Amino acid sequence: MQAYIKTSLFIILIFSILLCPSISLSQAQTRSTDIETAFLMPKTLTICGEPMPLGNPWAWEMLDREFTIAVWDKAQVFMWLKRAGRYFPYLEQKLAEEKMPQDIKYLAIAESSLISNIKSNKGAVGFWQFLSETAKRNGLRSDRKIDERRDFVQSTEAALNYLKKLKEMFGTWTLAMAAYNCGENLIEKEIRKQQQTDYYILKLPEETERYIYRIAAIKIIMENPEVYGYRMPEEKIYKPFKYDTTSLNIKKAIHLTDFAKALGTSFKEIRDLNPKIIDDYLPSGSYELNTPLGTGTKVQEALKTLSAKSSSEQYGPSSKSYIVQEGDTLNGISRITGISVDRLKEINNIEGSLIKPGQVLYLE
Hints:
- Helix content is 50%, strand content 8%.
- The chain has 16 helices and eight strands.
- The protein has helices at 2-19, 25-32, 57-71, 74-97, 105-112, 132-137, 152-170, 173-182, 184-194, 206-223, 256-263, 267-273, 299-307, 312-315, 330-337, 341-348; strands at residues 46-47, 50-51, 243-250, 254-255, 281-282, 285-292, 321-323, 360-362.
- Helix 4 (74-97) packs across helix 7, helix 5 packs across helix 10 and helix 11 crosses helix 12.
């Protein structure tokens, strides 16, 4: 009987060990490595020379949230560091020339991660995420032919001028940057309603309340990346583009393939150096064009030669555009394309009925 009881207890013990969850020492050691140590934030911080009130628990938690999200997004941070090598030298120089705080460069990362063609769900485009209307108010061309929001040099100049105006309007860089995010009209309205002029006290839309803290988190990481485990070899950092810039005044649209061949380069290289060009043509009008280093002296002669030829003979208009030929009228183009005259005028911002040979008409 005692032997039976002992045998039964032993069997129960074995089943208990097998069925109950257990962690071996090696498993415990492995799992312990999956638990990361939280990185420490600075105890004090300024943005554009203005102190952030981290003694306020609300402000501290807001920064902690943005910092935690950013510092653990490893692929994103590595890409910030790589792209900063390409774009920060020019931006830092412009900020110094304009006597503006260097921290503003982190706003560009918060807006676009330094990606030229990025677009928000609200229609903001480019490095500084300008809406079309705001871009035009600040001197940028934004239409179906050229979108200067995608040009780093031109959009940077517009963004810095806009931020300076906002600083003059609101008195602090934090409010200026908040207005950059949600618009000066909304900031003015909330200041009047709440009788507050301190960004950290104002109740604003959630995206704008997070905005300065996101910029601050980027600053913390980018200024000391090694502290947070980001070690970037010099050879991995992207170098600034080198190119020639030429002022153009084109009477007739020219296909990029023809132009590229005339310069001894490729369609792709011209497009990559000029993300602001929307279609496959150099559009008519006046604007700046980037070409590979050493080719700037050839541009005007190439344009003169190509302007005497029909660029549409070999390539033809794309399904989204039509190149006006000698003798064309809007009524005739309407019959060819099946698009009403009124719609053609609306799409292409045409007043009256005047069109010119070589002009590119967009069809949608």
